[in-house]
Structures are given as structure tokens and as C-alpha cells.
Amino acid sequence: MELFLQQLVNGLSLGGIYALIALGYTMVYGIIELINFAHGDVYTLGSFFTLTILTLFGIQNELHGAPLVAALLGIIAGSMLFCGVVGVLIERLAYRPLRNAPRLAPLITAIGVSFILENIMQLWQGPSPIPIPTFMPDPTYTLGGVTIEIKQIMVVTLAIVMMIALQLFVYRTKIGKAMRATAQDRDAAQLMGIDINTTIAVTFLIGSALAGAAGFVSGVYYGTTWFFNGFNAGLKAFTAAVLGGIGNLAGAMLGGFLIGLVEAFGAQYISDQWTNVIVFSLLVLVLIFRPSGLLGESLPNKV
Amino acid sequence: MTLTGPRKLWASLDPRLKGFVILGLCAFYPLFDQNPAHLNFLADACTFILLALGLNIVVGFAGLLDLGYAAFFAIGSYSYAMLASGQFNIHIPFWVMLFVASAIAAIFGILLGAPTLRLRGDYLAIVTLGFGEIVPQTFLNLSQWTNGPNGISALDQPVLFNYRFGLQTLPYFYVGLALVALAIVVVHNLQDSRLGRSWMAIREDELAAAHMGINTTKAKLSAFALGASFSGLAGVAYASKLNLVSPDAFQFNVSIFVLSMLVLGGMGNIYGVIAGSFLLSSLERFILPQATIFAHDLGFSQIDFSNFRFLMYGLILACIMLFRPAGLFPSRQRAAELTAGKTDETIAAHEQSMYTEAIE
Questions:
Q1: Residue A287 three-state SS
Q2: H-helix or E-strand spanning residue B221
Q3: A169: contact with B, CB 8 A cutoff
Q4: Distance between CA atoms of B187 and B61, rounded to whole angstroms?
């Protein structure tokens, strides 16, 4: 039982990271119906940004008090901004010119951009995993035999706060309304005076910023990063988005946590060699039996 | 433009025949160059041409994005490694294995395609991406059968009428050429068949194709299975020549490598794809190492251009789609489709050129 609860905690914190990435996938897919393959690599870029800032400021040891808060807030904000800008640039340079091209073209471009980012990161930081200095004290709490790290609480809290903020943004602000309108019918939205280029750019900005936050969190949580991290994480986060119902924000969150749990329990009770296979089989099963996901509505084919 | 003499004769030839003439000329190549490294390269290039032609059926003809094509290549190679070696003491002859492995690969294509091909095209891309990731991992994990990371070695060598191929490169080069010739015939016939036309209809507009009475699921599934079977052939040729099969030879990079060949050469155009494949193979094997040596001679000893090759494939995929979506050697029909979203001027220019060609 303790083992079960422990894996529940681990799975939820793992799921928090997937959920943050999945939000970006689901937003972009919701608005322009493109699987942004580069999204996973933007997430990796976030962890590299964290590493670079820590190295730049020579932070090697644990911080306490005000410096810790400043470092946490500063790096997470920086990482979100940096990744957000990268996301907007990718959209502007690679996806916007192909917005009206046949579907195959932007998909191939997206996988190309993903490959470019991965290899730039590999040339920049080398092909092996790199440790990220631990600057955050990590007291652990024990509750009835289950160990909970402060980092894990941070991951889950951050994911939930971000999702609520996003939900409010999309449903309560004017630009959020523009996003929903563009997602529903781009041409009609344009006719209503919505600047769809800006709206789509904002979508990429927010989605990629969330990936940046996830990159920061994963860097702190795992204490290591690797140029190829985004490939697997991206695949799982996309599965999470599909599981929750693509285009649905709460669904992405739910899917992210579920995938995290599946991975944690799969590693515990089956074998950690097979987690990728399990998650992937789950994706195929969802696509067969419930392609609209847990919370999504089924959409008719657009003509 | 009127052609005269040999050019007219060439233009009047059936494209299949043209292919054979070129391949026939290639068959004489070893008379002039016995360098085993070069022949080895050519044999490998044939394997990749086979892969590119197979992927072209899926991506080029049917317009389905398969990002895990290397998985079928792995399945073909491992089929040979398990069924023609001392691993389980099964020794099926090479020539039989060509059929067996392509059938196995096709079956896996159907197994993967059946649940996913009913869905929208982009889901297929991500599912194949995942499939490409887990197949090598499965071969890695099932170490009691596959020897895990070490792979399976000491595979059977092909024997043709008592002639043992052994570890020479020359016979593999000829087998590669023969397989490419076979592939060209099959692909041409498919392209001109009822099935081929329904693939292209699906590629252009799936909904319209379905309404015209095409069973789109069946057509897509056959594209997937046929494409996979080509990589089964390639896998057997590859495994028997290398004499070793290990999981790290079938990573995601390989799928992207083959996709770049297609995109560079021109999706849907058989000879464009072959040219793209040959170009990228030689780039990887000769041009980049030579460029590195040249840079070292100039005193830039830090530079190794081979490190940039994957970056280059990414750039090829993105830049070609952005600036020349039909590839270097476009098929006319595909060019028209892929520029459809562009400005009216390009379409007008294109129609004008088609019109002029038609008049001539």
C-alpha cells in the first residue's frame, strides 16, 4: 500500500510536467489543427535555458530565503519568456507561410523544425545528459511511510495554477475569446475583425511559455537534461492531450496526470523498460475506442 | 520544342524502360571501379533507394505521413536475423526470406494501420512516430531472443546456384540493383493502376475521394502494407550484407533520413525520389567526410561536417517544404497540388507552363 501511494505521488509529479507540455499541444492543435512536433523540443530548450542561467550566475549551491525566491521566479519567468519567443518565431518562420498549404506540408515542416532544434541543442551542449546544479533545498515530508518532496508539491501546484490561469485567460479575456473564435472558424473570425495572425501568435506564445515552465520544472525536478528529452516527453504529452480530448484544456491536464500515473505504476508493477511501449499502446487504444478523448466532443470532418 | 535524333528516341521511351537502361548502365560500373568501399557504398545506396521507394508509396502517393518507417526496416532486418541464422537454428534461404520478410513487414503495417488509418492524417503521423520509437526498443528489451544491445550476428550468407556471396561486396551490389529494378517496375505499375489513382485521389482530397466511391480505409491500408513490404526487402538486403542486426541501426534518425530523401527529390516522383536518395546517401558517405578533410587541410581542425548531417536533414525538410514544396525534381501533378495554397500568380504561371507544354 505504501508503495502504491508512493508511486501515486511520483506519478502525479511526473504528470504535472506532462500536463504543462500537453497544454501547449492542445492549444496549438485546437487553433490551427497542427501537431507542433517542435513543441517537445521547446520544452527541452526551457531546461537548457535554466542550466545556462544557473551557470551564468555561478549558482552552484543551495540558496535560501530571498535569493531562492528571486532565483525561482526569475528563472521561471525568463524560461517562459525565452521559450515563448522561440515558439512565436517558429510559427512566424515555419508555419505561417504554410497555413493554407496541404496538410502534409506543415506537418513535414514541423518534424523538420523539431529535428533542427534537437540538433542545434546537441551541437551546443553535446550529446550526453548534463547535470543541472541543485539550487533548491529539498526537504522531504513523510506521511505514513510515503515520502513527498517539496519539488513534487511545486510541480503539481505549478501545473494546476497554470491551468487555472490559462482557463481564465481563454474564457474571460477578449483575446481568449478571439482564440476560441479562430479555433472555431478562422475565416468567419477574420470577417468579424479578429486579427488571426496575432491571435495565433499569442497561442504559440502561451503554449511555448508553458513548455518553458515545464522545462524549468523538469530541470529542477530531475537535476539533469538532455538534448533528446523533448522527443519522448513530447510523445507522451501529445498522448496526454489526445487522451484528455485534443483542444480541451482541462482534458490536457487530466490526460497529463493520467499518463504520469500510468508511467509510474507501469514502471513499478510491470517494468520500467516497457513504459514507452505501454504509453504508446494507450495512445493507439484511445484512438481506436475514443478518438475524441475523455473530455472532448467529437467533431465532424471539416470540408 | 522539337527533339531530334537520340533525344527524341529517349523521350519516346517508356519510363520503365528508361529506368532499366540507366540501371543496366550501372551494372557495368564495377568493370571500371573495383574499390570495395565504393561498391559497398553503392550496395547500401540501393538499400536506401528501396526504402525511399517504399516510403514514397505511403507519403508520396497516398499522402500519409509515416514518421516511423525505420520500424518496418527493423522488422525486415530482424526477420532475416532470426529466421536465417544460428539464433534459433532456422536457416531459410535468402531468396525465400525476401518474400517472407516483406510479408511480415506488410502484416505489421496492416496491424499498425488498421486502427489508425480510419482517423485523420495527423494522428497517423504521431502514431507512426511512436511506433518507430518502440519497435527498436522492443527488440532491445526482448534480449532473450534478440541478444539485446549486442544484436544478432553471423547471419546466413546468400547462395545463388552454389555461388556463395560470403563477405564480398560485388554480389550484394548486383542484388541491390536487381531489387531496385524490381521495385521500379512494381511502383510504376502501382502508380498507373486503379489503386494508384485512388491513392492520389485520397491525397488530393480524402472526403471527395470517399464520395466518389473509393474505399479510403482499404486504399490507405494497402498503401501502408505495400510501403512496409518494400522496407522488408530492404531489411533483408541490409542485414545479409552487414551480417549483423542491432537495435541502434533503426533509430528515429533513419526514418528522418529516408523522409528527407523523398522531400528533397520530390514526393511522388519515382525518379526524383531515387535521385534524392542517392544524393543524400553520397552526401553522408563521401561529400561530408571529404569536406571535413578539406577543412582540416585549410587549418580548421575543429570542424567535422559529419556532425551537421542531422541538422541538415531537418533544414532540408523545413526549407524544401517552405520554398520548393514539390522537391528538386517535382512530379508535375504533385507540384500543382503543393503550390495550390500559394499565391494565384504561381498557379497562373504554372498553368501557363502546363498549357504551353500541352500545346507542344
A1: helix
A2: helix B216-242
A3: no
A4: 10
What pLDDT, in 10s, does the model give residues A81-101? 999 999 999 999 999 998 888
| Dist. CA A47–CA A41, nearest whole Å | 10
Give the largest Cα separation in chain A, rounded.
60
Interval B180-186 mean pLDDT: 88
Q: How far apart are alpha carbons B340 and B336 in whole angstroms?
A: 6
For B150, residues 6+ apart whose C-beta sits below 8 A from its C-beta are: B246
Residue A247 lies in a domain: no
Q: Is residue A238 part of a domain?
A: no
Residue A191 belongs to some domain of the structure? yes
**Whether B134 contacts chain A with CB within 8 A:** yes
Which helix (H) or strand (E) segment holds residue A208: the answer is: helix A196-222
- Specify which residues A148 forms β-bridges with: A141
- Whether residue B316 and residue A274 make contact (CB cut-off 8 A), yes or no, is no
How far apart, in whole angstroms, are the C-alpha atoms of residue A273 and residue B57?
A: 33
This prediction's pTM? 0.87
Tell me which chain B residue has its CA closest to the CA of residue A228: B252
CA dihedral A276, A281, A283, A285 (to 10 degrees): -170
Q: Is A296 exposed, middle or buried (0-12, 13-18, 19+ CB in 10 A)?
A: buried
Candidates B67, B126, B205: best to mutate against A (most CBs of A within 10 A) is B126
Q: Centre a 10 Å sphere on the Cβ of residue B222 and count the other Cβ atoms it contains.
A: 21
CA B281 – CA B77 distance, rounded (Å): 19
How far is the C-alpha of A101 from the C-alpha of A262, rounded, in Å?
Answer: 37
| Residue A2 within a domain | no
β strands within A104-186, DSSP E:
130-131, 140-143, 146-149
Given a contact cutoff of 8 angstroms between Cβ atoms, the answer to whether B47 and B237 are in contact is yes
Provide the grid cell at A58.
555561478
What integer best gives the mean pLDDT of chain A? 87
Gap between the Cα atoms of A59 and A75, Å rounded: 12
Domain of A42? 17-227
| E strand residue ranges, B184-292 | 244-245
Number of folded domains that form chain A? 1
Q: How confident is the model at residue A114 (pLDDT cuts 50, 70, 90)?
A: very high
For A143-198, write each residue's pLDDT tens digit: 777 888 888 888 899 889 988 999 899 889 999 999 889 888 888 988 999 998 99
B126 touches chain A (CB under 8 A): yes
What DSSP letter does each residue of B113-145 carry, written as one string?
HHHHTTS-HHHHHHHHHHHHHHHHHHHHH-HHH
Mean pLDDT in residue range B25-38: 77
Are A84 and A209 spatial neighbours (Cβ–Cβ below 8 Å)? yes
* B241/B167 Cα distance (integer angstroms): 7
Q: Name the one residue in this structure whose C-alpha cell is 525465400.
A: B96
Residue of B nearest to A285 (CA): B115
Is the Cβ–Cβ distance between A105 and A95 less than 8 Å?
no
Residues A124-142: tens digit of each pLDDT = 888 888 888 887 777 778 8
The grid cell for B18 is: 528508361
User: Given A98, A105, A123, which is nearest B307 (Cβ)?
Assistant: A123
**DSSP 8-state code for residue A136:** S
